[in-house]
Design a protein that fits this description.
Number of domains: 1
CATH architecture: 2-Layer Sandwich
Helix content: 25-40%
CATH topology: archaeoglobus fulgidus dsm 4304 fold
Low-confidence stretches: none
Order of helices and strands: EEEHEHEEEHH
Strand order of the largest sheet: 3-2-1-4-5-7-6
Distance between the termini: 32 Å
CATH class: Alpha Beta
Length: about 170
């Protein structure tokens, strides 16, 4: 029997005047073809940005938006799981350790030590996304990202999570 738990895609935005807004998009399968829910959470205070410790800023916001969500079987984050082939943890690894489910990291820019990341081209894009994974193989993660809904370089679920995190509202149906 297939796992009935949902899959999620998450992003966090930091307005110039402080705080953080995290957004979660929920779907019933890893293609994210059918969005079944969305959540937005606001944090009044967040840690200052520290190079090499980005997760200390981002992880509390992600945990806050996940706290009220149904159980997930997979989460896609904007960033890297591991920053190098030896497993130096990035945001996705810290999220994976905190919540205990597979995490796929999807980064829009290349990180110089992340030579293990799979370059995934979607739609008509010539510029790749860089895919890493925790709790599943990078090959499986790349296959999932390739199959995610949307015609653009960035899958629709991540585009939607980004838009919700920036705007902070979920429009009424």
């Amino acid at each position: 029997m297939e796992d009935q738990r949902l899959v999620g895609a998450v992003d966090v935005h930091y307005p110039a005047d402080g705080g953080a807004r995290a957004a979660l998009v929920l779907a019933d399968d890893p293609t994210y073809a059918r969005i079944v829910g969305e959540r937005v959470e606001w944090l009044d205070t967040v840690a200052a940005y520290q190079p090499g410790s980005f997760y200390t800023r981002e992880l509390p916001a992600i945990q806050a938006v996940l706290a009220g969500a149904p159980p997930l079987r997979l989460l896609v984050v904007d960033g890297y799981c591991d920053l190098d082939p030896a497993g130096r943890p990035g945001l996705g690894r810290h999220v994976h350790q905190a919540i205990g489910i597979p995490v796929i990291g999807v980064a829009k820019t290349s990180f110089h030590t992340a030579s293990h990341a799979a370059a995934v081209r979607r739609g008509a894009a010539t510029k790749p996304l860089f895919v890493t994974a925790c709790g599943l193989t990078i090959a499986e993660a790349a296959r999932i990202v390739t199959s995610m809904a949307g015609p653009y370089r960035l899958p629709d679920a991540l585009r939607r999570a980004d838009a919700l995190a920036r705007r902070g509202t979920i429009p009424a149906p």
